[in-house]
Amino acid sequence: QIALAGQTWMAFRETEEEISQVFTKYDANKDGKISKDELKNVLMELNEGIAPLPAEVDFVMDSADVLGDQSLGKGEFMYAISIWYTLEEAKVTQSECCTI
Ligand SMILES: [Ca+2]
């Protein structure tokens, strides 16, 4: 799982063009920014189609929204993706060490 996420992330980082494509694809209202609702759809795709928890969307949004305007520009968007993967890897590590 971690290796797969890492691979996806590496593939993601490979070309800026690719990120631009994802950015454009999810910028539903074409205002050049990713809003929280748009971010939710991005995270759902990264999460293999499973809707992320509202708290996770909030966390990624708040952490990546450097300008504090409640939307993500392209640079902030790239940052958001890396935060998401960090979050996911932490989750996997946690569930491995402390199974409920
Ligand atoms: Ca938008």
Automatic annotation (TrEMBL):
Chain ranges of the EF-hand domain: 14-49
Keyword Hydrolase set for record: no
One Pfam match: EF-hand_7
Protein name listed in UniProt: EF-hand domain-containing protein
GO molecular function: calcium ion binding
Entry keyword set: Calcium
InterPro entries with a match to the protein in the record: EF-hand-dom_pair (IPR011992), EF_Hand_1_Ca_BS (IPR018247), EF_hand_dom (IPR002048)
Source organism (scientific name): Guillardia theta (strain CCMP2712)
TM segment ranges: none
SUPFAM superfamilies associated with the record: EF-hand
